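Budget justification, computational time. The allocation requested in the original proposal was used primarily to generate structure tokens for proteins on the priority list. As evidence of use, we reproduce two of the resulting records. The first is shown immediately below.
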Amino acid sequence: MTPDARNAMKRRTFLIGVTGLSTLVLTACVSPAPRPSASATATPTPEPKPTVSPVPKPAQMRRTSWSADPFARGSYSFAAVDSTPEQRTALAQPVLDRVFFAGEATSPDAPGTVQGGRDTGLRAAREVISAAAPGERIAVIGAGIAGLSAARFLKDAGFEVVLVEARDRIGGRIDTVSDKNWPFPIELGPSFVSHSGTTSLDEEFTRLGIATAPFPSASETRTDAGTVVAVPDTGQKAVATALAWATQQASDMSVQSALDGSGASKLSTADAGGGVSEADWLAFRVATVLDIDAGASVDHQSGWYTSADAGADDERIVLGGYAGLLTKAAEGIDLLDSSVVTKLAYRDTGVSLRLGTGESLSADRVIVTVPLGVLKSGVLEFDPALPFAHRGAIADLGMGTLDKVWLQFDEPFWSTAAPLWTTVGGDEDFRVWINMMPLTGEPVLVGLVAGDTALRLAGADDATVLAAALRGLTPFYVPPTPTPTPTPTV
């Protein structure tokens, strides 16, 4: 493949990014890896990290740990080193016209997104209809957006459909929580619709009466000291230089290796203004864009297929509950929930599913929509083993992790009305925040962590995560104005 061809195949494959917060928080595990070297990403002597933040404790907190979720094992797929876009198509290929695959990881056009998951579910359903006789029994494994879309399409086409779901709810990585303690539905999974002008999701939300709102791509960025600073193109240019250099190399490499090999990471650690160095701005780009986009560190991301594009400006945030998208699709579907499929045996005459309870389920054909992270774990056994191309795709494609912490405060401690906050410099875990107050009128903040940081915090208790989140919010803290002491009268 020529460098030009590789360049042409590169695309943006992220879910929730800072330059374009996108559609989905999905599932799987990546192995921890070292952060970029200090010379590439940070000043050698950062300010000491405060042990206690002045930010008040929230009234409510909810957090996610998608890497620890056995039915997700991460958040969304990404272009890992030595993987190729063609492997997504390979993973989507039917086996014996009995086993079909869907899910965001099989989307060549929109991996890592709700739209991509939905489109692949519809594609797999059409493939089944082309291969099946009228009235056949079709099993669909996974009641996420891909599985529900496929099941709905097949049910409406006259097939007998059984939807098998490991969880006790539908939605998969779409997880809307409506709780009396929260003033509006909160999204533990996807929150955004990316490229809303070109997807069918935005129209569907409108039809269903589910509220959405435009979300700006620009952020308010502050230093650890709380100083608002303009974001230069230093980090963006360094990354673009490294990725352009990588496409000219004979073999794929990590983005970090491309940054080092191209010399793009050799930036000054001297103050370039506001107490922030050029190296800090590269670290900012890595932490708030690349890590978030992939859900993995730059040590794992492909230098050939990671995109340097800035992202879309037409994204919308879902305020009325992402799960509303699923309710209509599930109507009338035979759902077998709380049922883990441990083995899938297939022959040219049909398929058989073995459940974790020891029970079996037979069908003429099956659509597998479980997340890539679950496929990677091997907990679902295929008999016989899947073809080599499928196994290679499962092994090579990456699964990233992005987690959220939702914090509800009694009153705002901040003064900015910007809906998106980022921080530069220092080494705090939470560098990206969504301010829900200008969108909902409620003092609610959402912090994002990805990659190695998310994996590390997944093993921490709530108190540790909360402390890390409050430290990350310190640059936005505004001390309360003291009440004047009355002057005594004589």
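The second record produced under the same allocation is shown here.
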Amino acid sequence: MSGRHPTGAVGTVGTVTRGTTNPNRLRRMDRWIAATLARELRGAADPLAVDLGYGAAPWTAVELLGRLRRVRPQAEVVGVEIDPARVAAALPYTRDGLAFLHGGFELPLPGGRRPLLIRAANVLRQYDEAEVAGVWAALRGRLAPGGLLVEGTCDEIGRRHVWVALGPEGPRSVTFATRLGSLDRPSDLAERLPKALIHRNVPGEPVHAFLTAFDRAWATAAPLSALGARQRWIRAVGDLRGQGWPVLDGPARWRQGEVTVAWTSVAPAG
């Protein structure tokens, strides 16, 4: 994080991202969040979410609000961007439950509000790996009790996505999600690993071992291809669980082209 202030604005922490965004780019992440955080959303006194670094257009914040409100009609979303021009461009989309603010990792929320969710998608790829832990810690420190930080990376149209989920105490899980028809093998997702893992996909590292095991399970499940990629994926993930990998979700999520594993099973070695 290094206290960067590239825009010259006092108090903002971070650097301007490329800003690339497309409608529905984050749909896989959003649907997972809505399902995973549903109980907390329904019970929260202040069901506030932050879309951090939403980019050059506000589509992802608008879509996040819609998806969360299917779970909790009173949900609110604040889009936070470090580029003042992007904030100005987003302001016409402001409406009940949706606001846009200039800021960075310091999260300048009015009234000291603490969000139940912070989503930071495609924000940290330009940072050094050594900076990730500091950013995570700063953002986790802003969460409400029971809150969740979701940080990850996807391709330009959201076909392939990998994200880390963190609670106030630290990282909990990693989710691999894909449009199954676009996949040759699970390790294709390696190019979308978040910054904390992208440089760790090498022999001797746990994430490399996981993707290698996933590729083997995928190859073993090849006979199910006649029934479709979904059935092949479900079998491969089931085989991973059978091998002892700590898969945290079940077939209902696997059918979506997802698998979530405990962070400790893929965290960087050393």
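A brief technical remark on that second record: The CA atoms of residues 243 and 252 lie 20 Å apart.
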